[in-house]
């Protein structure tokens, strides 16, 4: 797991740097999802950065599209494009827009941003793969605030109805959204009970543990006849002490001083 840890730490540093450079972006929910995307792109998914459009590739849909920095940093780390491009985040004419755009950036399968639409697209892709009798697997990352959207539950109902066991939805359960704690804004709990009532295979894990992430994805592959939803307990702003568990870092960029402190903290981890 050491190589995964090194990649995750590099991805975190790049997230901080690119958001500082753009003076805009969403660091909190990007940093909380780093281990999940690192595992997907470096171990789990059938992908090839040298052949990013190969027909039988697994698909990833970032349903919480505002967390685009974690996707961009992961794609660059995996070799889809040069890391130098990361500092063009949100700049005019850059393919790295504030939300992922599949028409502009290689490696992005679905344009996302409007919450709930990403998982809906993922369900459609998974259903298409089933109809085609393809081995393609589909992964989608949602925010926990995002599941307040009714569209999410319509998509999950359809996924269960069509027995899409090639679909894995991961909920980044960091407990916070732009306005504060989930339970204060619009209570979503108990997530596990709600999801089980939709006839879904529900797993709960530590979303920062590669061992637990690996076990969950293995269980998902072995589960037949129903989709899997992984509730990943995470820390918003993970890895940067002053950002951790602070809702205010949902959509704010660090100052130069804050950027330097964050990078120093991440470099001191020695992975």
TrEMBL record:
Any one GO MF annotation of this record: transferase activity
InterPro entries in UniProt: THDP-binding, Transketolase_CS, Transketolase_N
Domain of life: Bacteria
Start and end residues of each Transketolase N-terminal domain: 6-253
Key words, A-Z: Metal-binding, Thiamine pyrophosphate, Transferase
Keyword Metal-binding: yes
Cofactor names: thiamine diphosphate
A Pfam family hit: Transketolase_N
Record-stated family: Belongs to the transketolase family.
Name of protein: Transketolase
Lineage: Bacteria, Bacillati, Bacillota, Clostridia, Peptostreptococcales
């Amino acid at each position: 797991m050491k190589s995964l840890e090194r990649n995750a730490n590099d991805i975190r540093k790049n997230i901080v740097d690119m958001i500082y450079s753009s003076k805009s972006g969403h660091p909190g929910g990007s940093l909380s999802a780093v281990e999940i995307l690192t595992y997907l792109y470096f171990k789990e998914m059938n992908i090839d950065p040298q052949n990013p459009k190969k027909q039988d590739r697994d698909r990833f849909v970032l349903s919480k599209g505002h967390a685009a920095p974690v996707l961009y940093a992961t794609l660059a780390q995996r070799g889809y494009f040069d890391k130098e491009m990361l500092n063009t985040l949100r700049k005019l004419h850059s393919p790295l827009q504030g939300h992922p755009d599949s028409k502009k950036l290689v490696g992005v399968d679905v344009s996302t941003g409007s919450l709930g639409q990403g998982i809906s697209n993922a369900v459609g892709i998974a259903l298409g793969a089933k109809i085609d009798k393809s081995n393609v697997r589909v992964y989608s990352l949602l925010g926990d605030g995002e599941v307040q959207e009714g569209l999410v539950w319509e998509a999950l109902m359809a996924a269960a109805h069509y027995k899409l066991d090639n679909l894995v939805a991961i909920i980044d359960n960091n407990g916070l959204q732009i306005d504060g704690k989930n339970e204060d804004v619009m209570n979503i709990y108990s997530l596990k009970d709600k999801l089980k009532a939709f006839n879904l295979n529900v797993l709960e894990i530590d979303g920062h543990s590669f061992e637990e992430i690996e076990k969950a994805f293995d269980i998902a592959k072995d589960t037949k006849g129903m989709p899997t939803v992984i509730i990943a307990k995470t820390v918003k702003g993970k890895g940067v002490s002053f950002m951790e568990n602070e809702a205010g870092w949902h959509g704010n960029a660090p100052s130069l001083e804050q950027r330097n402190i964050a990078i120093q903290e991440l470099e001191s981890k020695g992975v």
